[in-house]
Amino acid sequence: MKPLAARALVWAAVALALLGTLMLYRRPDFLVNLADQLWSCF
Prior knowledge:
Number of helices: 2
Strand content: under 5%
Radius of gyration: 16 Å
Mean pLDDT: 91
Distance between the termini: 48 Å
């Protein structure tokens, strides 16, 4: 695999991971669940 293609593949994977994270934060029940898990640590 050429270095340019590998770099493009890595950037595409990073972009998909960020998009997935943004989609999770758009769900209010996910945010409440995350806050409850964080609060249970204390």
